[in-house]
Write a structure and sequence with these properties.
mainly alpha, 79 residues, two-stranded parallel ribbon, single chain, elongated
Length: 79
Amino acid sequence: PGSITLLFIAGTHEGREQKVSHYVINEIIRTNASTKTVLDFAGSSLHSVARFIESFGAKNHPYYRIYRNNLFWPVRMLK
């Protein structure tokens, strides 16, 4: 099975009014519905974007990371 990663959909004010991004995502889903293709929305920490993505049935799967600052002490305090 393949996968499609949807990183970003940008649009104009007119495109938002006509809900072009809804149409594009719906067409991707409709075209691949009979396959085992996974559609990865790549998530968002913005509430409005996350809510939009969830409207297509996306599930929240958080990815955690560990951040380690290896800079020497005085510079580490500035970061």
